[in-house]
Amino acid sequence: MKRSVIDIGTNTTHLMIAEVNGQSIEKIIYKKRYYTFLGESGMHTISDTALDRLFHALGHFHSEIKKNTCTEVAVIATDALRSATNGPMIHQRIQESFGWHVHIIEGQEESELIYQGVKLSVDMSHGSFLIMDVGGGSVEFIWVENGEKRLQKSYPIGISRLYHSFHKKEPFLPETYDRMYNYLEGTLTEMWNSITDMNCTLIGCAGTFEIFLQSDSNQSNHSHEMVKRDRLEQLYAIVQNKSFEERQLVKDLPRERAQYIVVALALIRYVLSRLESNEFIVSKYALKEGAIIISKYF
How many other C-beta atoms are found inside a 10 Å radius of the C-beta of residue 288? Predict the structure, then answer.
């Protein structure tokens, strides 16, 4: 069965078309991402400029879905549309323009789809793992121990929110990192108190984590990759003291990620500082892979 999933996030909008057989993805036919930056003006209202970018992306996706003769289409929207005052209007406009119903999901449902996607990528049947999905509006955490979910939380600490709260001047100073660290400590206290095994392995998926994938691994059959923590520290050291313009010139860093990259790496760095591990896993599968195998969205 051929299915398409469109994932409307705060910073990016994705399309995936795949052949699905029951609870498995047989073949990924097409993938495309646009940087739509719906949260560029904050999370209260999505601007007209951001909407232009979103509908340009959706128009392209509509053409690709027709080209691939796919009639099973699911549109999933997360924090940007559920937080914005004009979210309902955008939902209606998408329906009128393309005939698609938009599933605007809450944080817990978002976490569940991420978990289902990562399960297709990483064997979590033995050991302790903390899944982390870094979005623009929210960050989802799922703690899995020997194949069983022990905790599942969504927090409004996405990189767009953190950027507007902390990265107000260039460059990002050490004292700013300290303030952000203290804020995250207060926000995530309940989660850390609930995790009894701090020796768990971090599994990062989507967004910023993708920059740690080797370029050729994206063309391989491997669905995840192990990354040394030193690579994160090296990249953070490179970008932390640079201006936005200088960050745009950093080798192997997509220009579209230059604005938010410092707070994104600082967030991951903070989480790794709380765990007893010198490496982490990057999963290629996340929300859209989890959604595409669930019939209720189609």
Answer: 23
Instruction: Pick the closest to residue 110 from 294, 298, 243 (CA basis).
Output: 294
Q: What is the pLDDT along the chain (298 residues), one digit of tens a residue?
A: 999 999 999 999 999 999 999 999 999 999 999 999 999 988 899 999 999 999 999 999 999 999 999 999 999 999 999 999 999 999 999 999 999 999 999 999 999 999 999 999 999 999 999 999 999 999 999 999 999 999 999 999 999 999 999 999 999 999 999 999 999 999 999 999 999 999 999 999 988 999 998 654 444 557 899 999 999 999 999 999 999 999 999 998 999 999 999 999 999 999 999 998 899 999 999 999 999 999 999 9
* Neighbour count for residue 167 (Cβ, 10 Å): 21
Domain count, the chain: 2
Closest to 187 measured CA to CA, from 145, 218, 141, 225: 141
Distance, CA of 276 to CA of 199 (rounded, Å): 5
Selection from 156, 148, 132, 174 nearest residue 277 by Cα? 132
Its domain, for residue 239, covers 123-287
Tokens representing residue 232 in the block: 């994160």
Check whether residue 156 and residue 53 sit in a common domain.
no
- Nearest Cα neighbor of 239 from 201, 281, 211 is 211
| Contact (Cβ atoms closer than 8 angstroms) between residue 27 and residue 122 | no
**∠141-223-75 over CA atoms, to 5°?**
60
Tokens (6 digits) for 262? 């410092």
User: Is 159 in the same domain as 24?
Assistant: no
Rg (CA), the chain: 18
> Do residues 19 and 2 touch, judged by C-beta distance below 8 A?
yes
CA proximity to 289, closest of 10, 11, 13, 28: 28
Is 15 within 8 Å of 32 (Cβ atoms)?
Answer: yes
Any domain includes 109? no
